[in-house]
Amino acid sequence: MYIDSHCHINFPELAARMPELLANMAENKVTHALCVSVDLPHFPQVLALAEQYPHIYASVGVHPDYADTPEPTLLQLVELSNHQKIVAIGETGLDYYRLEGDLEWQRERFRTHIRASRATRKPLIIHTRAASEDTIRIMREEGAGTDKGGVAGVMHCFTESLDVAQAALAMGFYISFSGIVTFKSAKDLQAVAREVPLERTLIETDSPYLAPVPLRGRMNEPGFVRHVAEYLATLKDVPLSQVAQQTTDNFFNLFNIER
């Protein structure tokens, strides 16, 4: 069985197809999915899905790309996470790829999420793009990770260098690979994936984006995550059953979910 550790099935293009989406998950042996929050106005939709479906879990957080959205406070994140189906804080992090100018607000938002993780003891879901140095620095300064008495988490949709992966692993974080790892152009990322221990690996779709080969170009969905697992099994030269079982175990362990 497989688990999609990061998806956005509350987005309208996927929510409108929910019965089909769930059927495709079952057909592809995807037993659970984590629907990840990107802002507070749409958080009720995320939570509603988790409340409606036993095999769907949720997070609470505000994406670093969202500049014009209500800013979360520490108290808000702590209070909103006080629900048995909310298993993580995020997604949070830094993204300097699209935004320019003074991005201190983004760094402060990231710090707030890390503090909420420490306060709630719920793991972080971290997004980083074109900002890895500051991401790791702030994680260390704020005590993210088990090495500083904080909580573990996941570097989601990982596309950074092996050095960044090793820094995150040293803090107790997991590394999650999306369909990007299957792309022909992703040679550097594939080299990183070979080095990341399977015991610290998660798989995800980040749907509706980044459909994996051989479905690239289609709208992504949780049922497609098995293609990421199949690719990693080939890349690491291990049985597919081992990738499926270990990434499943990792999901339950990281997010403290009882089976």
UniProtKB/TrEMBL annotation:
A divalent metal cation 1 binds at residues 6, 8, 91, 206. Keywords: Hydrolase, Metal-binding. A divalent metal cation 2 binds at residues 127, 156. Pfam families: TatD_DNase. One of its GO terms (molecular function) is metal ion binding. The keyword Metal-binding applies. InterPro entries: DNase_TatD-rel_CS (IPR018228), Metal_Hydrolase (IPR032466), TatD-like (IPR001130), TatD/YcfH-like (IPR015991). Gene3D superfamilies: Metal-dependent hydrolases. The keyword Transport does not apply. GO terms for cellular component: cytosol. Belongs to the metallo-dependent hydrolases superfamily. TatD-type hydrolase family. PANTHER family: D-AMINOACYL-TRNA DEACYLASE. This is DNAase.
